[in-house]
Every structure is written in structure tokens, then in C-alpha cells.
Design a protein that fits this description.
mainly alpha; two-stranded antiparallel sheet
């Protein structure tokens, strides 16, 4: 091997270091921008204080969970006949800390960039976009940089600890390395779920309270300084749409790379990297995606007030995707041998690249389809607008129908993507397709995070009483941000589906089962139980928003009633009381949904065994993907139907604006859709991945034991073939299944 080939493994964490250095530079630039007058700074200070108060309260509760879970994981790693190690607890803690740090980075920069975007909007739309998108890019690069640095560094450390020189990559030592590394992903996804659910409950409790009492009852604008819940609402944009989303995509990013590494470990690769190529490839693609995301961020700019913000974001996004697709070709050709096989499926390096392209295409199509169903001016949103003219009920009916209908095309695309990627490179193809899709996470997250920053900027402009043109500029950014948020959620759920399938395949291998037979009564029962879990999870999350929103509504009504002079600007609302309601409710209510995701795999796996748990995971994945798409798209469509009234909409030849009866009906729809799109819907992708990761972590403990740990087929004839080295001639190209081929080999012997 050349020097470069020997040391490629050490280059991967360097990609993360580069991203974090650029993050620091961009964060410094944002901090140096003008924050506006004293009133603007004061309002932004309230938002920042509320956001940090929530994070500290959340971290305090989650720290107990992390300590207890780490102790249990460390103990489980010391049990005999289990291919794990107590270091899995260390990986878990690091994953949890990195996930929390990812959320903190996003929160910190968002609460600085919001007021600076407002001030920039006083000069031009171009400058406002520059500040808000740079703020978003700090989060995107920070999250992806931490993921690549953490995963790459831990892999190097565990590889050195567990794999002696000359050991086989498909041997037990490397299996232990990857099993211990799953702790990092478990820590990341655990924190992500609690952060996403807790942040979602916070933001929607405040949003619903602010909307129902402020806009509908009091007839004041959404971000009016007289609304007691307006600060809590703006804090919620940060804790839910920024910190929660940051932890969410950090977990998704890590899980996707890890799933590919788990399957890559099973490939006996004859490459120039000591057999590590299939394991290194997903990390290398992630690192390249980081670099090309940094380059493509330069293209996100506009020249004047009439330029399209959406087009500027699309240019940056597509640039990163195309550059990553080109670079992936050379990475695949350089790393991988000409032919490989995994579980009886033989494929070439070219086929692996084609699977990556399938993943990129699926991601792009999912974003386009989601944009169609949720964007203003498109048919689905316009249909909800029209149905608002006949009342609140028909608006709700229209939104539900749009959400359900919006699952058809994405599922067809997803199914085609699974089939296509498997066709090219088997299960490794499915996993690497997800890795390719997530390679440009830094850019995707930058585009996502810019939306909440712009939303906050508009709120500060409204509360500060700035000129109309300032609010028009921030509204322009906010409208685009709503669409990018919806498309980002569609992208996330698609990647979660592919990742969960790869994790599922890894679980089957580690657990020592060759198939999941739904003809068995217990497996079929597990399938139904799994299908039910996303519904229960969603019900808990939505109910939590409802209870917290009721408390918020009562508090806002009390302040309007008991504090004279609020409506006349003579008295200041008690913002801190509304912030406290959202904080306490979100911390309290996030525990039960999170416990379901963590405990169900444990209960089913240890009680009924790996095959029933496999059936449960299949049910959760299918049901969760559909629920995630339905809720996120319905909520996004309701939201933009409401926003359509701000510029006026034509219904049956008559134009209606804010304050009209159809607009009030659209506000009701948006209120129903809020927990759909920002609480339960986005949590579905974390739910299905977290349950798969928990199952993968416990798989060695519930596995069907066999003397031959390198074979998925646990029969004596299969072992006979491998031991006699006949397995190399037993491929699916002989026109039979892996099991039949191995049996044929034994008969030859």
C-alpha cells in the first residue's frame, strides 16, 4: 500500500476539522454584524434567554438518562459470549454530548443571527439573505463537522483497540469494533428524539396559544409585542426548528453512515486498504459532501429586491449535489475492488456508484414532490385556500386529504429507490444510497436553519415597529423558509426509510436470523404491534401540545384580562410566564414518547426473540414513514394556505385578506397542522431509526447462537462449506439462493 492508502483512514476526521474551522469563521462574521437599536437588542435578548433556559432544563433531565443508560450499556458490554465491550458506554456518552452540542451550536447562532437579519433587512433583501443563510450555514457545517469528526475519530480509536495487525476485516474483532461504535449512534439518536419532541412541544404550545388568542380573539398580528406569548413563540422557533432539528439531522447523519459501515464489515473486500474500503467509503463520501457544501454555499446570493430567494437556495443545493455525485465516482473507483459480494449478491464498484446516484435522485425527487404539496401557489395549497371559504371544518377536511394524498408519489419514489439500489448492489447498495443522499447534509441543514432565523427576524421587526418594507423582506425570506422546511422534512423521512432498512439488514445479520417469516403467529403479532407504535407516539406528542397550548391560552387570556393597558401599549406583558409554561410542559411531556422508542425493542427482543423484534421493526418502519409524510405535508400545506391570505387570495371572484372569515378558518387549519409538521411528523424519522439502532445494540444479547459468526446461515452444511472454502464458488449467479448454493457446495464436497 502507498502512504496515502495507509493513512486515508486518518484523513476522514480532518474533513470534520475543516468544517468546524469554517463554522467558527462564519459564526464570527455573523457576530460582527450590526444588531440594530436598543429595543431590537432587548427583544432578541428575551428570545436568547428563553432559548438557553429551555436547553439547560432539557440537558439537566437528559443527563440522568445518559448516566443510567451508559452504566447499563457498559455492564452489558462485559457479559460473556457477547461481541461488545464496556467502551460502548463511552461511545454512547460522546454521541449524546455531540448531539447536544450540535443543538447548542444551532441555538447560539440562530439567536444572534435573527436580530442581525432584521437589521440587515432595513438595508436590502440581499443583505438579509446573506446574514440569515450564513447563520444557517454555521449550524449545517457545525452539525455535519461534529458527526464526521466524532464518527471518524472513534472508528480509528476502536479499530486500533480491537483489531490486531493482520486480523480479517470480516472477523469477530472488526464486528466488535462496529458494535461498540453503534453506541455513538445510539447516544446521538436518543438525544435527537428527546430534543425534537421536547422542542416541538415547546414551539407549538407557544405558537397555538399566540395564534388562537392573539390573532383570532384579539385580532392583533402574529408577532405583535402586545401578545404575551410572542416571545415564547419566537423562542420556540429556536428550540424546535433549530436545536431540535440540529440534533435530529446529526443523529440521522451518523445513523446513515453507521448502517453502511455495519454492512460493509460483512464484505470480504480484496482492496488496497486492507479490506477496509467498504467501511471507509460512506465516511469518505460524507467528508467530500462537507467540502462541496462549503464550496456551494458561495453560490447562495441574490443581486436585487426582485431576485428569487428560492432560486438562490436551489442553486447552492444543486451545486453541492452535483459536485458530490461527480466526486463519488472517483472515490468509489479509487477505494473499491472491481467485484464484491454481500450475502450472496455479487456487485461491482460501478454498481455501487449507481446506487449512490439512485440515492441522490430519490432525495431530489422527494424534495420536489414535497415542495409541490406544500408550496404557496401550487394546486394542493390552493385547494385548501378555496375550501376555507366554507368554514373551519372544510379547511380541516381539505388539509387532511392533501396530507394523505401526498404520500402516494413519495412512497412510489422510495419503493423504486429501494428496488433500484438493491438491484445494483444488494443491501450495501441500499445503505450507500442513503449515505449518498445524506452526504450534503451540511447544505440541506443550512437551507433548513435559515428559515427559523428569518421567521424570528420578522417577529423582531413586527415587535420593534420597523417600517413596512422591512417586514416585507423578512416575510419573503420566511415564506421561502416554510417551503424549505417542508422539503427538508420530506428529505429526512426518505433518508430515514433507507437507513432503517440498512439497519434492519444489519440487525438480521448480527442477530443470527436468515429471514423474518410473517406466517408465524408471533412474528405477525409483532408486525401489527410495530405498525401501531407511530400512532401511539403521535397521539402522545399531539396530546402534549394540546395540553400545553390550553395552559398557554388561559395564561394569555388572563394577562389580557388582568393587566390593563396591554392593548394600548401602556403596559408590558409578562412574557416570562408564557416562556415558563412552554419550558415546563415540554420537559415533562417529552419523557413518555421517548421511553416508548427505547423500551419497546428491549421488551420485545428479550421476551420474544430477534425474529419477532424484526417483525416489529418492519411494522414501525412502514407505518412511521407514512405517518411522517402525511403529518409533515398536511401541516406544511395548512401553514402556507394561511400565509396565502397575507397577499390576498381570490375565491369565487372575491379577494380575501387577513382578518376575513376564510382567513380565520385557515388559522384554525394551521393551528391543527402545527403539531403535525413540527412535533409528531418530524419525530417519525427519529423514532424508526432509534428503534432500529436499539435493536442493533441488543442484537448480540438476543442472537441465535452459532459457532460460525461470519455466516448468516446457521446450518451445519453452510458452515461446512465456509470451512472448506467452497463458499467462494457459491454465488447467486449459479441461479439459486445463497442457502441453496451453499447446500450445493456441501453436496459437491
Amino acid at each position: 500500500m502507498t502512504f496515502f492508502q495507509e493513512n486515508l483512514i486518518y484523513m476522514i476526521p480532518l474533513f470534520g476539522v475543516v468544517a468546524l474551522l469554517v463554522t467558527a469563521i462564519k459564526a464570527s462574521w455573523v457576530s460582527k454584524q450590526n444588531a440594530g437599536d436598543a429595543n431590537m437588542v432587548e427583544l432578541a435578548g428575551y428570545i436568547a434567554q428563553g432559548a438557553m433556559a429551555f436547553l439547560k432544563a432539557e440537558w439537566k433531565v437528559l443527563s440522568y438518562y445518559v448516566v443510567i443508560a451508559a452504566i447499563l450499556l457498559g455492564w452489558s458490554g462485559t457479559l460473556p459470549n457477547v461481541h461488545s465491550h464496556w467502551l460502548i458506554a463511552v461511545a454512547f456518552v460522546i454521541g449524546a454530548v455531540f448531539s447536544a452540542t450540535a443543538g447548542y451550536i444551532g441555538m447560539k447562532i440562530a439567536t444572534k443571527a435573527n436580530v442581525r437579519t432584521t437589521q440587515a433587512a432595513r438595508t436590502s433583501l440581499a443583505q438579509a439573505l446573506k446574514v440569515s443563510f450564513t447563520g444557517g450555514s454555521v449550524m449545517g457545517l457545525g452539525v455535519a463537522g461534529l458527526a464526521v469528526l466524532g464518527l471518524g475519530s472513534l472508528f480509528i480509536i476502536f479499530y486500533k483497540v480491537f483489531v490486531p495487525a493482520g486480523a480479517s476485516i470480516i472477523g469477530l474483532e472488526m464486528r466488535t469494533t462496529i458494535e461498540v461504535l453503534t453506541g455513538f449512534s445510539l447516544g446521538a439518536e436518543s438525544i435527537a428524539l428527546f430534543a425534537r419532541v421536547g422542542g416541538g412541544i415547546y414551539t407549538k404550545a407557544a405558537d397555538v396559544g399566540a395564534d388562537l388568542v392573539g390573532k383570532v380573539e384579539a385580532g392583533i398580528p402574529e408577532d405583535d409585542v402586545r401578545n404575551p406569548a410572542t416571545i415564547a413563540d419566537n423562542v420556540g422557533d429556536n428550540v424546535g426548528d433549530v436545536a431540535g432539528m440540529g440534533a435530529d439531522l446529526f443523529g440521522s447523519y451518523v445513523a446513515t453512515i453507521l448502517a453502511t459501515m455495519v454492512l460493509g464489515q460483512e464484505i470480504d473486500s480484496k482492496d488496497n486498504f486492507g479490506g477496509l474500503a467498504p467501511i471507509l467509503l460512506p465516511m469518505l463520501i460524507a467528508g467530500l459532501g462537507l467540502i462541496f457544501s462549503i464550496i456551494s454555499m458561495v453560490f447562495v446570493r441574490i443581486k436585487d429586491e426582485n431576485a428569487s430567494v428560492q432560486n438562490a437556495l436551489n442553486l447552492g443545493n444543486w451545486s453541492s449535489v452535483i459536485l458530490t455525485a461527480i466526486a463519488s465516482f472517483f472515490a468509489v473507483k479509487y477505494l473499491l475492488p472491481e467485484t464484491m459480494s454481500l450475502r450472496g449478491v455479487e456487485f461491482s464498484a460501478t454498481n455501487v456508484y449507481l446506487a449512490i446516484i439512485v440515492g441522490l435522485i430519490v432525495g431530489a425527487l422527494m424534495s420536489i414532490i414535497t415542495e409541490y404539496y406544500t408550496a404557496m401557489g401550487k394546486g394542493p395549497v390552493n385547494s385548501i385556500v378555496q375550501q376555507s371559504s366554507t368554514g373551519h371544518a372544510t379547511n380541516i377536511i381539505g388539509g387532511l386529504a392533501v396530507g394523505m394524498h401526498s404520500t402516494v408519489l413519495p412512497i412510489i419514489v422510495l419503493a423504486a429507490g429501494i428496488y433500484g439500489s438493491y438491484h445494483f448492489a444488494g443491501l450495501y447498495g441500499v445503505a450507500i444510497a442513503a449515505a449518498g443522499m445524506m452526504a450534503t447534509t451540511a447544505m440541506q441543514l443550512a437551507i433548513d436553519a435559515f428559515g427559523p432565523i428569518a421567521d424570528n427576524a420578522g417577529g423582531i421587526a413586527e415587535m420593534s415597529g420597523l417600517p413596512k418594507e422591512v417586514r416585507e423582506r423578512t416575510d419573503n425570506l420566511d415564506a421561502v423558509g416554510n417551503t424549505t422546511a417542508a422539503t427538508g422534512k420530506g428529505f429526512a423521512i426518505a433518508s430515514a426509510a433507507l437507513t432503517s432498512l440498512a439497519l434492519f439488514a444489519a440487525f438480521v445479520g448480527v442477530a443470527g436470523i436468515s429471514s423474518i417469516d410473517i406466517y408465524k403467529a408471533d412474528v405477525l403479532a409483532g408486525l401489527f404491534i410495530g405498525g401501531m407504535i407511530p400512532f401511539v407516539f403521535s397521539a402522545l406528542a399531539i396530546s402534549a401540545v394540546g395540553r400545553a397550548a390550553m395552559a398557554m391560552v388561559q395564561e394569555v387570556r388572563r394577562q389580557f384580562r388582568e393587566i390593563p393597558g396591554i392593548m394600548e401599549y401602556k403596559a408590558k406583558p409578562e412574557y416570562e410566564k408564557c416562556v415558563a409554561i412552554s419550558t415546563q410542559a415540554s420537559i415533562r411531556e417529552m419523557i413518555l414518547p421517548g421511553a416508548i422508542a427505547l423500551l419497546v425493542p428491549l421488551l420485545i427482543g428479550f421476551t420474544f426473540g430477534p425474529e419477532v423484534l424484526g417483525g416489529t421493526l418492519a411494522g414501525v418502519t412502514v407505518s412511521g414513514v407514512l405517518m411522517g409524510m402525511f403529518q409533515s405535508n398536511a401541516g406544511g400545506a395548512w401553514d402556507n394556505a394561511k400565509k396565502s391570505f397575507e397577499k390576498g387570495v381570490n375565491i369565487n371572484g372575491e379577494t380575501f385578506y387577513k382578518g376575513s372569515e376564510p382567513h380565520k378558518a385557515s388559522v384554525t387549519g394551521d393551528t391543527v397542522g402545527d403539531p403535525f409538521k413540527d412535533t409528531s411528523g418530524p419525530s417519525m424519522n427519529i423514532l424508526i431509526k432509534l428503534m432500529s439502532i436499539v435493536s442493533l445494540v441488543i442484537a448480540p444479547h438476543i442472537a441465535i447462537k452459532s459457532d460460525n459468526h461470519t455466516s448468516l446461515l446457521m446450518n451445519e452444511k453452510g458452515k461446512c462449506c465456509i470451512e472448506q472454502k467452497h463458499a467462494s464458488s457459491c454465488t447467486s449467479s449459479e441461479g439459486s439462493s445463497r442457502a441453496a448454493a451453499m447446500k450445493s457446495c456441501c453436496e459437491k464436497k
